[in-house]
Amino acid sequence: MFAEFGVLNYLTYLVGAVFIILVPGPNTFFVLKTGIAHGGKKGYLAAAGVFIGDAVLMFLAFAGVATLIKTTPVLFNVVRYLGAIYLLWLRG
After folding, report:
1. Which residues contact 76 (CB under 8 A, 6 or more apart)?
2. Which letter does DSSP use for residue 8 in this model?
3. What pLDDT digit, counting tens, does each position of 34-71 carry?
4. Residue 25 and residue 62 in contact, taking contact as beta carbons nearer than 8 Å
5. Are 46 and 34 in contact, with CB atoms under 8 Å apart?
6. CA-CA distance, 39 to 81, in Å (whole number)?
7. Is the dihedral of CA 48, 13, 1, 66 positive or negative?
8. Burial class of residue 31 in the structure, from the number of CB atoms within 10 Å of its CB (0-12 exposed, 13-18 middle, 19+ buried)
9. Model pTM?
């Protein structure tokens, strides 16, 4: 189904996604901080959110969305401004 995007084996894709999540980095520290500050249930929810977000990002990379954004200046500006608005909203 997704062979044209480079996903030939779903199990391999899932294992790769899990290993990318397990590599220490900002996501790991976010999950640890959330788990310590708000308890185990919120920590697991944070880990699930990070996993889903990274899995979507990897799929979009396979789909070539980065190339589409790079070759379409209007789409690039839309994504850029939406990201800026989101960061301003997070700041509150």
Report:
1. 69, 70
2. -
3. 999 999 999 999 999 998 998 888 888 878 888 888 89
4. no
5. yes
6. 35
7. positive
8. buried
9. 0.55
